[in-house]
Amino acid sequence: MALDDNKKRYINHHGGKTYFLLGDEACAYGAIYAGCDFFAGYPITPASEVAELIAEELPKAGGICIQMEDELASMAAIVGAAWTGARSMTATSGPGFSLMQENIGYAIMTETPCVIVNVQRSGPSTGQATKPAQGDMLQARWGTHGDHNIIALAPNSAQECFDLMQDCFDLADTYRTPVILLMDGEIGHIRESVVMPELSSVRHTSRKRAERAEEIFGGQELIPGMIHYGEGSNVHVTGSTHLANGMRDVTTPHVHDELIRRIYKKIDSGREDIVRIETDTVANGKSRVGVISYGASARPARGAVKAARAEGKNIDFLRLISIWPFARKQVAEFSRDLDLILVPEMNLGQMSREIERFVDCKVIAVPKIGGVPHTVDEIHQVIMEAVS
Amino acid sequence: MIVRFAGFGGQGIVVSSYIIGKSAVLDGKKAIQNQAYGSESRGGECRGDVVIANEEIYELEPTNYDVLVAMTQPAYEAFVPLLKPGGTLILDSDLVVTDKKLEPKKIKKHAIPATDIAFKKFGRKIVANMIILGYMNTLLSPVSESALEKAISESVPKGTEKMNLEAMREGIRLAREGKG
Amino acid sequence: MSEPRHRLMDFVREEIMPHRFCSGCGCGTVLNAFTNAVEGLGLDSAEMVCVSGIGCSSWIPSPYFRADTLHTTHGRPIAFATGVKILRPDLTVVVIAGDGDVAGIGGNHLIHAARRNIDLSVFMVNNMIYGMTGGQVAPTTPAGVVTTTTPHSNVEPPFRVADLVVAAGASYVARWTTYHVFPLLESMQNAIKRKGFSFIEIMSQCPENYGRRIGLRTGIDFLKQFKEQALRVEKANGMSEEELKDRIVIGKLCDKERPEYVSELHRITREQVDKLKKEMGGAA
To answer: What is the ipTM of this complex?
Structure first.
């Protein structure tokens, strides 16, 4: 999506500077850089700072930020906005994310590009409301009812919160689907340096447009183009099972079958384009133990791998930046010569089970709940036990 | 270097940790600042942590500190046992009475009446934290003095920059004179 | 020779006609009034977005009315419409949905939209029952009625939705019935023209899943009763609760100017953009 003059001016105002920001704030700036036009949200710890900064800054870039009466309404409003051609987003935490699930399903079914930030906190229910966790990894995958696919990315620094917002909006437009930024309260609430890019280095993917209203929900294309409201095409958008022209057909089995399989397939077939990982493997190929982690957990995990190597142990490391679709090929490859993979995560082993499905070696979760992240020492100790 | 600032809300605890972190970033170093959030940060105890390093920081929530700045008795009592052996403790001498039984081995102790000086010299108790910042930075040099000045100027309310910088310089002077 | 074509056919998705409303249902009447209202205003459907929820009356715009359409989740059409209107204030955004959507599961969105005074027109078709799902009790069902989920009679008093919306701060509020087609049509036009939150509660009939339980077996039975129950608001003013029992107060309940939400949001954005422009010396 081309940036308009207001957004360019805003980026010129900040470009080239280095800020000391919360992950939440970095996410908000990243959204504005990514061309976000509209934010609707509801306050919740630890995500409120996203809304607060967007409320302060987005109008300066020509956008609008509103606070809705709840998270259901927030999610609804950003879907409505997306159909006018806007880049729209919301930000929340676990309880709000739970409330959004029905309308996230609506966005999936209507193939509406939008971005949902979930700064995960300790649950279930109110849990430890102010404490970080990574307990919504599978809710992000399967939170809404029915068969569907989803894209979710997980940053592990304030800079990455900024950078991945761009990816989120681009992926949402490319795949015509809601995209989730799966932050955690730890990354959201620590302050780090963030480099604000210059305007010349900001690139945006454009949303594909359709020529004919008859084919905005199917037809020849795996990912159909969009026609926005107000363009005189009498676009019909529904969360019910529909034909390529958007008209409901909720009784013909093959209509539902084809629609859902296509919506599923468009993300599955883009897996290699969507998947983002970072690896740090020992060059001699002698590693028998690997560590896979993501988000906040990946920080102490990386530190522990480094510490073990300093003691002469060969340990491989992989960080998942994209969570969904799962990096099955990359993880399988990573595991090939390993006997054991350790998976530090701030839950009771949500991603370790997913990893287990795609590797032949043993997978051991290194869970941590209670509202504090792993320390480097804790993970280091597990690694040293594993190699001995 | 890992520093914990602790005290009551209204003493500028969190902003102190923010300023040191921001100064480190201005120096081109890596820094992480963290603070207590939500209901736990209201009406009472308050803390702000900052980690400064030349390389990537892996420890997100350190459990032990190189430096503890304690501005109240409860803050001192709660956090001094977590100071690393050989670490540095900086206190407001009018607000904290130390207790050797709580303290790890071989820590270096510095006590200055920052709040009292702030009130008498600047008419504002709130700048005690700036005195402490100048004092601590001169003692331990986690960041450059120029970065600290810049970070303070950019972080305090507009119109109060001069007073805050003067308070910081007062802290520098106290450290150079070997006070505390 | 081509078949004669109704002048309002331009306003419906002709290709999916005939409609599937039950015989005697009030939704057809509302669709009729709405298309006439739009035609009378000279509105081009290309300048309109119709938003609906889940239920029989949501079918009035989705799929029948021919405009850009957002057929949303149950209860949330006003929240979806909010996003559309903020980004495209130049479009006329109309929500048509039932009492279950608007006053039941989505009641919170209704009162907040009225409080904000967002420039939407919400036409709530109140048939006093969950018709599409088989006749379950609604928050608008009168007390004492037997429904499929109150088989021993309903013990809850019904919401007087239009009065609620007046209290919440809407610019324009009216109540009519499917018997009062012409005043309803005119009221719809006034609602659309009024900048701010406009709300019309349209008392409507569901002979199939409500009427047969209360002895009103046909649409005509309902219309006769609506005619008898109707009482102009001017007459109702000052009457006691007892006197108003079983009456439907019809007419315009409020019509006032108030600052409109979307204009205010855009004003703030313009101000902030200008401020940054100034700060940067007018640079792009």
So the answer is: 0.97
